[in-house]
Each structure stands twice: as C-alpha cells, then as structure tokens.
Request: fold
Amino acid sequence: MRVYTAVTYILLCVLYYIYTANSSEKSIQPISASRVTLLEAKSENQKRHRNHNKRKRHKKIRHKNKKTKMSRMNKEKDVKKKDKHKNKQSKMGKDKYKSNSKRKRYHRYLKNRISCCKVCKS
Reply:
C-alpha cells in the first residue's frame, strides 16, 4: 500500500511540474512588432500632449506676468487708462467689420439664418 501511495505521489509531482512548465512558457510570449509600434506611438502621443499642455500653461503664465509688469510700470509712470466708452462712441459711424472675411462670414450667417418670411429675413 505504501508503494502505491508513493508512486501516485511521484506521478502527481511530475504532472504538476509539467503543468507549471507549460503554463509559464505560455505566459512568456514575445510582443508582436505591431503591438510594439502601437505602444511606442501611444507613448510619443502622450509626450507630445504633455509638452503642448506645458507650453500652453507657461504661455498663459508669461502673458499674465507681462500684464502685471506693464500695469506696475504704468502705475509708476502715472499713465491714465483710456476711456473705453469714448473709444466705442468714436467707432460708431465706422464699418462694423473691418476685414473682408468677417463681412463675408456675417453675410453667410444672415443668409443661412432661419427667417419668418423671405422679405424680412429676420
């Protein structure tokens, strides 16, 4: 009886060893070339986005610093702010759209706008 149990135990050990050897071979598979390129492209894309966001953030900070610097310099020089309302009044008679592209865009908007009738276009 003891011989029988010893043989079965040895067989079980051998089977377990074969099973673990096969499973470990399956898990270690080389990554295909297309997958590698995909991963590289993904990491490059992430780097590019990260750099872009960093540049954008620093651009905002630089702009803000420049504005505060200019306002501080103007305070030291006692420069008065321009009256915005006065500037708007002086521009009233002038053309609303200085560039031709803006005028075209506005006319396209008017043309495509849903109107209550063909005469009034409003």
About this structure: The radius of gyration is 38 Å.
